[in-house]
Amino acid sequence: MARKAFLVFILLLCAITVPYAQNKTTPKGSLFIIGGGTRSDALIARLVETAKLGAKDYIIVLPMASEIPDSGYLYISQQLKAHTKANIRNFNFNKHDAHDSLWADSLANAKLIYILGGDQNRFMKAVLNTPVYTAIHKAYQNGSTIAGTSAGAAVMSRFMITGVQLKDSKYKETFDKLWDGNIEFSEGLGLLEHTIIDQHFLKRNRYNRIISALADKPGYMGIGIDESTAIIVNGNKATVAGDSQVLSFVSPGKATVTTGGLLKFKKIELGIYTAGDVIGIKP
Q: Which of 62, 70, 212, 270 is the most core-located residue (most Cβ within 10 A)?
């Protein structure tokens, strides 16, 4: 009798979990994640090539992370216009209702969505729990390219690094200590569920920050993208493009902590990649 009940339980469990697994489809689109800094003409050309813009396709720039959104839009649109005749639109949801269904529909149908740099927290404040968030995901699922630089790179992750150190009163571009519980996350776009992105990586020496992230989120992967460099994500693979390097960090185990709150790892797997290299990632 007990064996029969156990078999019934297993069958019910399968009935619940299999349909859910079937709905977890791989997005048809791409992510073009730039580590900040200057964007070369070749890098923008690669972005346009990745987006596969057709005659009727258009581009939408989301400038909400930037303190100078109009200038930021102007600059990236000029770069893009050198490589495409596609219409480029500026959708600033800091100045426009994020619940406008017409704008949300337009965003969902854009072939390329570009997120400016600035403050990732400012961007997420504008889009989280709004139709804008949903539209970005819909576009990605249906084959669009979602691009971002600097703060626009950070928002790609589910667990987004805010830049705040919880155990230090002053903001620093890099962490100067490896302390337990020092890193702050907030909710990002979640286009990458199991990989945490950090930007300006080599330029700002952000090793301690990404290691702190891995300690806080065991089982996740950390990707540090340097300036003028990008990863192009398709499914579980990321191709490096640009002038500098991309670093990957994976820990096979949990961090331990001393009584004084210092982090310890027995091992972290490190990879260093340049243009053309392909990295296996955790989408």
A: 62
Alpha carbon separation from 175 to 24, 198, 209, 266 (Å, rounded): 36, 12, 6, 20
Distance in Å from the first CA to the final CA of the chain: 43
Q: Print pLDDT tens along the chain (283 aa).
A: 555 554 444 444 444 333 333 346 899 999 999 999 999 999 999 999 999 999 999 999 999 999 999 999 999 999 999 999 999 999 999 999 999 999 999 999 999 999 999 999 999 999 999 999 999 999 999 999 999 999 999 999 999 999 999 998 777 888 999 999 999 999 999 999 999 999 999 999 999 999 999 999 999 999 999 999 999 999 999 999 999 999 999 987 889 999 999 999 989 999 999 999 999 998 8
**What's the token pair of residue 213?**
């992230």
Distance CA 242, CA 275 (A): 6
Tokens matching residue 35: 């580590």
Residue 54 CA: distances (Å) to CA of 47, 50, 104, 223: 14, 12, 21, 31
Distance CA 164, CA 174 (A): 10
The answer to whether 154 and 197 have CB atoms below 8 angstroms apart is yes
Asked if 35 and 228 touch (Cβ cutoff 8 Å), the reply is yes
pTM, 2 dp: 0.90
Structure-token pair, residue 101? 């269904």
CATH architecture of residue range(s) 28-280? 3-Layer(aba) Sandwich (3.40)
